[in-house]
Amino acid sequence: MLNRVGATALSMLTCGSMANVCVDESGDINDLVDDGFGGSGTVDLRRMTSVVGSPHYVAPEIIAQTDKGRKAEGGGGVEGGAESPQDRKSRHAARVGYDGTKADVWSAGVILYAMLFRSLPFGEDLLRCPRYQAFQKWYNEARQILTPVPGKQNRRAVVESTLDPVYDEFDEEEMLGPHWFFPSEITAPGRDLIVAMLNPNPSDRLSIEAVLKHPWLRAMDDGFTFQDAPVASTSAFGCGG
Fold it and tell me: Is the CB of residue 5 less than 8 Å from the CB of residue 46?
């Protein structure tokens, strides 16, 4: 059971409940579903929808999906009757949930930032935090920048390029976060890793495996220590948290 989706399911169960791992096409819940490699139907892995974690460390997709879920649960259905399969499927589609492993990467990025700078990157009310909003705007704009060197990939648009250990002037100026977000003392690999872990878009945020392969951590494995000295709190765009 759970043959094709089993490994993915287990890797995603870093928080929340292990019940109801899969749903079928109609939106009905199946605790254990075997797609059989060639069966007539397709099976989607049920993603997490529970809100867990301390406010400063919770990933944006966790906060965002709670609002979608509330809106979906507030409408639909036949008045005075049972919910139809179509309404149930629509409700499930509206509250798609989140990938727990990617949410953990975000939280680890917040912790890494706090360890290096003795402050938190964003305020408690994340989606309304001006500092987060400015960071998200920078990220969206950085994804659209064309690289000046033929064959070079945009670190913020292509996940695999984050593992490139070579940082040129273009990376330093455009790809490693807004200048107000980091003190000048932090190294390029350190900036790159934190920015990649704090990617507001979970679909192209680094995986846990990719984080462990990042040049900043690989260099430490090789015995080299980056001189990322702790500095004072970054206070731009204060969020009151």
Answer: no
